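User: Can you write out an input/output pair for a complex, sequences first and structure second?

Assistant: Here is one pair. Inputs:
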Amino acid sequence: MEPFPASQMIVGAIFLICVGTAVLGALIAALTARIIRSVCGLAICCIGLAGLYYFLNSPFLALMEILIYIGAVCVTIVFAVMLAEPDEPVRDENFGSTLVWGGLAVLVSAAIFWGLWRLGAHQDWTAPATRVTDGSVKAIGYSLLTTYSMAFELISLALLVAIVGALAIARTGRTK
Amino acid sequence: MFQSLNHLISAWWPEPLRLILFLVGIMSFVGLNAAYLVWVERKGAARFQRRPGPTEVGWAGLLQPIADAAKLMSKQLILPAGVDATLFRVAPLLMMSPVLMSLAVIPWGRNLAACNLNVGLLMIFAFGSINVMAIMLGGWSSRNKYAIISAARVVSQNVAYEIPMLLVVITMIMVTGTMNLSEIVIQQSGAFWHWNIFRVWINPLMPVTFLIFFTCMLAETNRAPFDMAEAESELVAGAYTEYSGMGFGVFFMAEYANILLGCALATVLFLGGWQSPIGNLLGDSQSIVGVLFGVFWFFVKMYFLVFSVVWIRWTFPRTQFYRLLNLSWKILIPISLVTLILSSAMIKLFHQ
Amino acid sequence: MMNPVPLNDRPEIYFTIAALLLAIGIFGLLRRRTLIGMLISGELIFSAASLNLMTFNRFKAPDPTVGQIFVLFIMGLAAAEIAIALSIIIAVYRNYRSVKTRELSELNG
C-alpha cells in the first residue's frame, strides 16, 4: 500500500510536539512560584517523555512512565502539597543577592548543559550490527526473571522498606 | 468476497484517515452515551422508586438529555474568587481526554479497534491513573473546603482500589498470556463456557476475580455505593462543587465515559468481548455480518454491565469511608493476592 | 525534509533533550526554597538520566531489554524515594509548621 502523503512530516511534527512538551513541562516545573503548578509541569514533562520513549521503540516504558510518574509520583506530591501548602516564599532578601545567586544557578546549569551537549552531539553514534533480542515486553519479562531476578527482588524489597518506612516516619508526631 | 471491516477501511482509506474516523466515532459514541445514560439512569431510578421519571420533554422524556445539554452549554463557567484559573479550567479536560484515549484500544468487534496495541491493557490503566490527578486538581483549585475533602478522599479511595484491580489484571495477563485486548477476546472464542469468567479449570476462583474487578471498577469510577468523591448529602457535590455550566458537564460526561470504559474492559477481559454466548452460529466470523453480530453481542454484554451499575447505585446505600478502605485493604487485596498465587500455581502445575 | 535521517532517529537530539532536562533540574534544585520544589527538580534529574539510558539502549545496545529494565528500576526507585521523602516532609511540616529550607536551620550553630 502506498504511504500516506507527508507521513514523514506528520511523524516529525508529533516528535517535535513531544520534545516541546517535555521541555516546556520541565521549565514550568522548575520556574513557577506556585508549587501545584510545578507538579503539573512535572506531569506535562512526563507525558512528553512518554512520547519520546515511544519514539525510542519502547511503548511499554512510555506507559509505565505515565502510570508511575503521573499516577503515583505526581499524585503523591499533590497530596503532600494539600497537607502542607508550601508555595514559594516571596523573595525577602535584597535584589542584588537574588540576582547573583540566580545568575550563578543559571551559569552552573548552562555549563552542564553545554558540556553534555558537546559530548552528545559531536560523537559518531552508529547502531550496533546485531541485536540479541527484540526488546519486546516478552523479552523484558524473561530478562527480569532470569538475568536480573536478583535486582528485581532487591527493588521489591526496597519498595517494601520504603512503604514501611514512610508509614513509620509519617506516624511519629501524629499525637502532637 | 466479504473482507474484515478493518481491511475494507484500510483498503479504501489510508491509516491516518482511518484513525481520524475511529476517533470521531468514539467521541460521538461517548457523547451520545453520556447523554442517554443519564436518561437511562433517571428512568431506572424512577422505576426503582416507583415513580415515572422524566416525561415532559419528548416521548417518555427522550429529548430530556438534549434539553439538559443545551442548558449546561448556555450557562456561564463561573470562576470563584481566588481560584487558580488555569488549573480550574484544565481539570475537566484532563478528566475527559484519557478516557477517550483509552477507548481507542477497546476492540468493539473482530479487527474493530482503533488501535490494536500490544500493550493495550497497560495503556488503559496508565491513562486511567490520570483521572485521580484531574479530580485532585479540580478539587484543589476550587478553593473550597468540601472540594478539598473530596479530593483527599478520591486519592485514598483510588489508590486503595487500584491495587486489587491491578492484581486482578495481572492474574488475567497471566491466564491469557497477553496484554493485547483483541487476542484476549480471540482466546475466548466458542460458547460461553470458554469465557474467562467461567474458566474454572485454570483457576476455580475466576468468578470471584470478576466480582473483585467489578467492585474495583465501581470504586474507581466513583459510583455508588462508593461515591465518596461527590457524596451529595455530605459534601454538596464534592470536587465538582464550584463548577458550573460545561465545566460540570464535562466532569459528568467523563464519569459516564469512565463507566463505559470500565464495563467494556470487563466485557473484554471476562465476558468474551464480541464472542457470542452460543458459539459461532454464522460460521464465518470474518464477514461483515459476523463482525456486526460481534458488535451486537459486545454491546449486549456491555450494556448489561452498565445497567447493573445503575441498578447497584439505586439499590445500595453509600458506605462509610473507613468501611470503604477496610473493604479494599482487608478483603479485596488478600483475596486478589490469593487468586493471583492460585492461578499462577495452577498454570505452572497443570497447564504448561 | 532536508536531512535524509528523520529527526526522531538522531541520537544527538535525545541527548540534547536529556542534557536540557538535567540542566533545568539542577537549576531548580539550586533555586527552589521549599523541600517539595527541590524534590520535583530531583525528579527532573531522574528523568534526564532515564532518557539518556533509553537513548543508549535504542542506538547503541546490542540487547535492547537492558536499558528498559534499568529505566524500570529507576522508576521503581523514584517511587520509593518519593514515598520516603514526602513522609519526611510531612513529619518536618508537623514539627516546624514550614517546609521552607531557609527556616529549617536548627542545626545551623
